[in-house]
């Protein structure tokens, strides 16, 4: 198993954190992982993306030009990465940041209304975990248990009380995602 994933959006949406948690989760399962962030100097409000590879075998290079899955959280990222999903791959997008939805017919397209769900939960910081839950429903690259262990590794101890809320957000994302 080898999954090559791009997560892209604006800084402040939790793009890099989502990738880091996914990578740590892979490590918790003894998999080979690569986490390669890219962001502009703006960070919050600027574009940000992260490439994550989770594999059962050694990873030859973290630099990719095509992806098995893309999580797209804003229009500029959709325009940049939609054509970089491998035929037969998947694209997941949040409707909140997308004006013109994806149009490819050779990939599976999923929509998740994660921003709306985060607002309903009254916790905007749950947004990225809702999206991650959607990904894990479609592509169970790692287990939820590993994600929770990954959260423990990535979150400072003073935020460990938020882990149960993050688990709820992941499960919510699994419920919300649907194919378009």
In terms of quaternary structure, the protein is single chain
The total count of strands amounts to: 7
Gyration radius over CA: 15 Å
Number of helices: 6
The gross shape turns out to be globular
Structural category: alpha/beta
What is the helix content?
25-40%
Sheet-strand content, in percent, reads 25-35%
Mean pLDDT: 93
- Please report the distance between the alpha carbons of the first and last residues: 26 Å
Map the helices and strands.
Elements: E1 2-10, H1 15-28, E2 32-39, E3 47-55, E4 67-72, H2 75-81, E5 85-94, E6 108-112, H3 114-120, H4 127-138, H5 144-154, H6 163-176, E7 178-179
Parallel strand pairs: 1-4, 4-5, 5-6
Antiparallel strand pairs: 1-3, 2-3, 6-7
Folded structure, characterized:
The chain has six helices and seven strands. Strand 4 (67-72), helix 2 (75-81) and strand 5 (85-94) form a beta-alpha-beta unit. Strands 2-3-1-4-5-6-7 form a seven-stranded mixed beta sheet, with helices on both faces. Helix 1 (15-28) crosses helix 5 (144-154) and helix 5 crosses helix 6. The radius of gyration is 15 Å and the shape is globular. The model has no long low-confidence stretch (mean pLDDT 93). It has 180 residues and is α/β, with parallel strands linked by helices. Helices cover 36% and strands 27% of the residues.
